[in-house]
Amino acid sequence: MIPTHHLTFLFTLILVLVVDVLRCLSNDDPPYLSCRPFNCGDITGVQYPFREKGNLNDCGHPGYDLECGEDNATIVINSERYRVLNIDHGHRVLKVARVDLWDINICPQKLVNTTLDLNFFGYAPGTINLTLFYGCSLLSSSAYINTIIFLSQDSCRASTNNGLSGPIFYGLLPNPFTTPWICGASMVVPVIGSSEVKYYYDLGGVFKQGFEVHWIVNDSFCGECLDSGGGCGYNSTLEQPTCFCPDGAYPTTCPPGPSGM
């Protein structure tokens, strides 16, 4: 015979396991609990289509991953890293600044034109391109005197910019364009502001001001989903947004009643 104290222990163990199983079954779906507005660095109230990189993948649209530091948020667009300055969900506008130019660095290790993945982002109104020219010869014409600024420094040496050195020019130019000098390389950086060149004498301020883009993916359902008690997310299998509710996933909102609010 099995001793009584052994039976008591076995019964208690089975009871604990049953209670744990019932508790798990009664819990809300993990996406419903996780897919809520969150804070990322110094940006508050972040929601769909963005998601925190490394967290529950269903909580945001692929292509909108944020990396959250202690005091800042960053995002990678077309392999280039940007610091997130603001997220305006009401107007679907993201304000970003290039990390490699953040510390007033006009001589980055790589000269990379700013480009967007047009499947996910587009330039917001008011964005213009600032072009920087490196390793240039002296001006041979004054044709661009009103649109070009000469930087009287020679700071880009062999350790940067693939060995390019020499005068640096920058300004607002039409596309396509020709220049009255010969340069070793150029780099295009979007900025916000007026076409008046005098505004761009403070390159550090311009770079830190960043520029604005709008996100392409439709997130209009998210407000209704949150109001109904759900969490905004994305169904990777169906490739469409979804509203996670206590009793499962729905296309736009949680149903009324016990399962909803």
UniProtKB/TrEMBL annotation:
* Pfam families xref list: GUB_WAK_bind, WAK_assoc
Is Nucleus there in the keyword field?
no
Task: Domain (Wall-associated receptor kinase galacturonan-binding): give its ranges.
Answer: 35-98
How does the UniProt record describe the way this protein sits in the membrane? Single-pass membrane protein
Localization terms from the record: Membrane
User: Cellular component GO terms, alphabetically?
Assistant: membrane
Q: Which GO terms describe its molecular function?
A: polysaccharide binding
- Please give the superkingdom of this protein's source: Eukaryota
Q: Which UniProt keywords apply?
A: Glycoprotein, Signal
> What region holds the Wall-associated receptor kinase C-terminal domain?
179-248
The residue range of the signal peptide is 1-26
Primary localization? membrane
Glycoprotein in keyword set: yes
InterPro entries attached to this UniProt entry: WAK_assoc_C, WAK_GUB
- Cite the PANTHER family for this sequence: OS01G0113900 PROTEIN (PTHR33138:SF1), OS01G0690200 PROTEIN (PTHR33138)
- What name is this protein filed under? Uncharacterized protein
Source organism (scientific name): Nelumbo nucifera (Sacred lotus)
